[in-house]
Amino acid sequence: MIIRYLGARVWILVAALVAAAILVPLANLALPANHPLHVPSYLVPLIGKYVCYAMLALALDLVWGHLGILSLGHGAFFALGGYAMGMYLMRQIGARGVYGNPELPDFMVFLNWQELPWYWYGFDQFWFAALMVMVVPGLLGFVFGYFAFRSRVTGVYLSIITQAMTYALLLAFFRNDMGFGGNNGLTDFKDILGYPIQADTTRAALFAASCIALALAVLCVGAIIRSKLGDLMIAVRDAESRTRFIGWRPEYVKLFAFTLSAVMAGIAGALYVPQVGIINPGEFAPVNSIEIVVWAAVGGRGTLLGPVIGALLVNYGKSVFTGLAPEYWLFVLGGLFVVVTIFLPRGIVGTIDHGWDALKARRRAKNREKGESEGTGNDPNLAASPAE
Amino acid sequence: MIGRSALFKRPTSLAGPPDKPTDRGLAFMIRPMPWLLALLALLFGSLLSAPATAQEPATTASGDPAAIVQKFGGKQSYDETEAVISELAGTGDPAVARPLRALRDGDLYWREGDQAVFIATRDGDEYDLLDPMTGETAGTAPRGEMEKVRVKNSIRNAVTLALGSLTLRSDNPAQRLRAAQTLFSEADPEMIAPLTEAIAAEEDPAVKTAMAEARASAILASDAPEAEKAEEARILAARGDREALAMLSRFADSAQTPEARSAALSAIAQVENNIAFWNQAQNVWYGLSLGSVLLLAAIGLAITFGVMGVINMAHGEMVMLGAYTTFVVQEFIRTNVPGLFEWSLAIALPLAFLVSGLVGLVMERGLIRFLYGRPLETLLATFGVSLILQQAVRTIFGPTNREVGNPDWMSGAFEVGLMQVTWNRLWIIVFAIIVFVALLAVLNKTSLGLQMRAVTQNRRMASAMGIRTPWVDAMTFALGSGIAGIAGVALSQIDNVSPNLGQGYIIDSFMVVVFGGVGNLWGTLVGAMTLGVVNKFLEPFAGAVLGKIVVLVLIILFIQKRPRGLFAQKGRFVDA
Which InterPro entries does this chain map to (chain B) (predicted)? Predict the structure, then answer.
């Protein structure tokens, strides 16, 4: 029943992710290096990175595609989750740092700090760090959303304010006396949960964890948009005032989705950091947050599958292109923004859906002509119609 | 004492010997009448030199600087040189400034044969000789014959001091003022008497005040009675700058009597108040300067956003294009017509307006008009354009900062009270105001402005009244972009011209627009200035970065109260 409820497409995606979580580590670890299906070790964290980005794009799409809130600050939640994980990893280094201080991370010793700041307490415990990965971005999203939605800041204003938020955090995290490593951020991680972070097995495990997390996120988002809440979200997106007049409270709907989205972004960031081995204030840069939007836009906003595919495609393209001609990547990215908004407003998945629907409608019309009336096709997909 | 005060009287050259080269008229008069001269000399000599000879035989020559200068001739100890310097200074004749300066610069020489003193400049194997007093050429001499008057740092200092007291009597008020200012920081008790005299003779009030301050500083440094010092402390308190504060606190530390102490302390309090006041003034000034930069950057954004409801993320790149236009214009002028460099900014202004305006027009016609009614998509598309423009500039001009020069009238600074005002900042404020007023005039006095306001207020109604809204959109966008280009010309004078120039301003400009509200230029003005001043006032407490964060947080909170900004438009079209 639950399969019917969520639609086949969600399950196909989940199955693909679970398969990837099992097969890619296997192909990396078990197959010999000269085997044609062998996945080289450098590729595992790279694809793992894309998976984290996909999760981030999914989180953004939850609020943009389904609620019409264009957040230009989702990179902030991602980075906060990453920092929470980075703090745990820093504490795991222990006395193996350059200065050999068992208590303080290297950069604090370097800055002549005598003791650990209070907000670093507890990060030597994984469970605490894992909690903070969700609580900190969630709390920021909640407080920010509470103020923003309560006073009905919408549209472009909201986008600019979210951008200002991540910009302010960028400035703040660049400061050395914030106690987050300043410009250099947190890096030189040694191990996670006792396993060496550079080892192939650990990386394979992290990759699998990322895929599973993304699969869970897809299930979660799928369940929400299938529920009555999902319908309400679409209603708020397309006619906020009308929804309010009917008697709903759009601000609560938005607040819930925004907070959930922030938590998801935080988890994505936490999985991202151990795979790339560094987190620095650059992740807060407004440009990063806007890039997330283009992933979702390329894949197709509000299509569930789209952001995931978009993030994978764009980032794969970025890797390929920066390898070939790094100076032209910005041209491509800029062009992507323009082309997608003008020629492909539904995104890849949305356009295919639209074409498919149109095809089905034509066939139905033909069938009707033949006099064979058929039950309406069970369309599992939301038609992607851009807000406003 | 008598000697000293007499030294600073301008010498009457009547008593001078006949070989003084300047007094040609006198020499002409003297030659036919040797007997009269002898008589006069006898008369004056018996009258004037009688008391002087009793004290010190050298004073007989005190009236004649030319003779004293000659004393530099011959091998001397430094002490002897210094004695000659003070003797020269004692004449009070501004003409001795020339040999003294030459001495300081190491250009004073004496001839081995007759020990005559000259200012000499080397010319190959020879020296060109100048008369030390008049500066007239006095022939040449081979290198071997000339000997330099040796100087060391203490001698140079003595010369500087002597020059300071000399110029107190100069005919040029500016020079007298400079002398007084030098003496103020020297605070040399020796100078009290000459300053007192100079003050009595001074007529220019500004110079007089400066001299009084110099005298006060000298008295505070001397061992005068504390009551007198306390009196002088008031003059320093009125001056009220940091130097005065340092002197006053030295005085307060050394004061013996409670009266002097309390006088010093009250003077210190007064000075501290004064400094605090000027600090605030400086902050306001910096704030206004930052605000005018923000205004320039944001004003174009405000009209495009106001009229079209579109946030142009490429606005910062329009500013950057303006700055690069300035760079190109200057390069062209440097290589082709260097004489026009002072005019480079004036030439760049219309060009920058055209370049950025044209790019804006192309953007509107080629891109944005397809996205009407979808503001969020427009935001994304314009962001894409901004990336492309940035990379294009980086490819063409390179990723590093390009050098844009300041014309002379843009560089330098002057002081108002204790506040430093740089010319480029001042001109940018003036320029921002001009742009603002011009734009206000366009909006309120032209038909395009009328149509723009109509579309801002109610697009459908305006369209129904026959306004071609697409055309208005295009013109608005071109105008807003062109103004951004002009802003770029101004910003090129105070900021690094690099492909990232625009990015630095874009978020701040948005903040200004969001804070000030849409559809009203006054909102942009007030928003920009408020943000600028608040930023600069927060900086001393919180540091530049934290100050900026605080401002961002404040704006986010402000938006809670007034989601449509400070100068929100009222009416039913608002919640479209």
Answer: ABC_transp_permease, ABC_UrtB_bac, ARM-type_fold, BCAA_transport_permease
By CB atoms closer than 10 A (0-12, 13-18, 19+), residue A37 is exposed
Residue numbers in chain A where pLDDT is lower than 70 = 1-3, 371-388
| Whether A164 and B510 lie within 8 Å, measured CB to CB | yes
Structural tokens at position A324: 């070939």
- Nearest-CA neighbor of B221 among B250, B199, B198? B250
For chain B, the average pLDDT equals 79
The residue whose two tokens read 């109260």 is: B561
> For chain B, how many structural domains are there in total?
3
> What does DSSP assign to residue B402?
B
Q: What domain range includes position B238? A: 168-256
Mark whether B356 and B213 lie in a shared domain. no
B361 burial class (0-12, 13-18, 19+ CB within 10 angstroms)? middle
Q: How many CB pairs under 8 A join A and B?
A: 130
Q: How far apart are the first and last CA of chain B?
A: 90
Q: What is the CA radius of gyration of chain A?
A: 22
| Test the B interface: residue of A167, A178, A336, A385 with most B CBs within 10 Å | A167
The pLDDT of residue B546: 79
Contact residues on chain A for B375, CB-CB shorter than 8 A: 155-156, 388
Interior angle at CA B79, CA B78 and CA B80, nearest 5 = 90
C-beta atoms of A338 and B390 within 8 A: no
pLDDT digits (tens, 9 = 90+) for A56-109: 999 999 999 999 999 999 999 999 999 999 999 998 888 888 888 888 888 888
Q: Which of A126, A263, A266, A271 is nearest to A206 (CA)?
A: A271
CATH code for the domain of B354: 1.10.3470
pLDDT at B367 over 50: yes
Per domain, the residue ranges of chain A are: 2-369
d(CA B250, CA A329): 65
Tell me the residue ranges of DSSP E strands in B332-477.
413-416, 419-422
Distance linking the first and last C-alpha atoms of chain A: 35
Q: B43 and B134 share a domain?
A: yes
- Specify whether the CB–CB gap between B456 and B387 falls below 8 A: no
Candidates B308, B380, B388, B503, partner chain A, best to mutate (most A CBs within 10 A): B380
Per the CB < 8 A criterion, the answer to whether A28 and A39 are in contact is yes
Q: Could you tell me whether strands B117-123 and B126-130 are parallel, antiparallel, or unpaired per DSSP bridges? A: antiparallel
Q: Are A57 and A311 spatial neighbours (Cβ–Cβ below 8 Å)?
A: yes
Contact A171 B545 (CB under 8 A): yes
Rounded CA separation B453/B475 (Å): 13
- A165 contacts in chain B (CB < 8 Å): 552, 556
Asked if residues B103 and B151 have their Cβ atoms less than 8 Å apart, the reply is yes
- Residue ranges in B458-520 assigned as alpha helix (H): 459-464, 469-491, 501-516
- Tokens 């894309």 correspond to A50
Residue type, B526: V
The C-alpha angle with vertex A72 and arms to A71 and A78, in degrees rounded to 5, equals 90
Question: Where is average pLDDT lowest: A216-220, B238-242, B428-432?
Answer: B238-242
Is this structure's pTM higher than 0.80?
no
Q: Is the dihedral of CA B50, B54, B57, B59 positive or negative?
A: negative
Query: Does B28 reside within a domain?
Result: yes
Compute the average pLDDT of residues B320-324.
94
Calpha distance A255→A380 (Å, rounded): 26
Q: Which residues of B touch A (CB under 8 A)?
A: 305, 309-311, 367, 370-371, 373-381, 383-388, 390-392, 394-395, 507, 510-511, 514, 545-546, 548-549, 552-553, 555-557, 559-561, 563, 575
In CATH terms, the fold of domain A2-369 is ABC transporter involved in vitamin B12 uptake, BtuC (1.10.3470)
Residue A271 · residue A277 · CB < 8 Å? no
ipTM for the complex shown: 0.84
